[in-house]
Amino acid sequence: MESLDIRVLRQLHDWRAQGRDAILVTVVQTWGSSPRPEGSIMALEKGGAVVGSVSGGCIEDDLIRAYHDPQGADPRLHGDARPQLLTYGISADEAHRFGLPCGGTIRLLVEFNPCPEALAHLLALLDQRHLVQRHVDLQTGHAWGSATRVPTALHLGRERLSLTFGPAYRLLLIGGGQLSEYVATIALFNGFDVTVCDPRSEHIQGWSVAGARVVTGMPDDEVIACVPDRRTAIVALTHDPKLDDMALLEALKSSAFYVGAIGSRRNNQSRRERLAEYFDLTAEEIGKLKGPIGLYIGSKTPAEIAVSIMAEIIAIKNGVDVPRELSVGSVKDRQEQQSV
């Protein structure tokens, strides 16, 4: 399952390539509480189809009504090619009407009939796993995108809107057991591209999660082949040191934003000692290894453990500085000390 942003852009491109009228709506500013962050997008096709979201639903409904008005009574969405800036929630009554919490205010940029060729170029860059900065001329509606190396925050100026789109986040799972199926399912619903690697045919033949790619090469080869970047997470789940360590050996040298391995505190300590003694890894590289993985939620079943693992991955993806006190290993250390 693709990320929501990419799904919106791809669907918008398809509509426009077919010659269908459509608008692209972007959250460009928020004040107070807002259901969706700056940079959130939605696309609305003239016939009534919609993809994406800019609020909890009420603003979408208002935009749909205005855009579909056959008389064009609402001039906000029946202009020329020039983008329109719309503001919702200035008054308490309007904020309540549109479901904006605590008197929040949201400002939107509406683009009319974006160029399908420009959208195709943007999507091609994203499919090639480039970080892309998209610019919109606020006077003409002309939009263009280019690859960039550093993500930047959304910027709304007098003449231009600039925002960054990234390629899909990826998750490489080492091991095709039941736990991997639960982790893959949660990851797919959160917009990750998921690949599952297991060279053991007996562990992968019953794989049943649609949407996850399955590979059967050796873990170190598959890690190298996926070329991990800063939007890649790698998790070893086999409990077999021969397989998990092979994957970690390459993963810890990569740019992956998350590298973790299943196992107890003792097993993870032994793993770190092996990596330091037998493999050419620096202390800094070994320090990137997460384990025991997950946030502590008292999980017992494979499904609950998967929630714990994905909670930690998503938190780190979103730039949350997760306190060590919330990790599985830290909580179990405290529990052990209290029981003495």
UniProtKB/TrEMBL annotation:
Superkingdom in the source lineage: Bacteria
Organism, scientific name: Alcaligenes pakistanensis
Domain XdhC- CoxI: 15-67
Gene3D superfamilies to which the protein is assigned, alphabetical: NAD(P)-binding Rossmann-like Domain
Record-given protein name: XdhC family protein
Domain XdhC Rossmann positions: 171-313
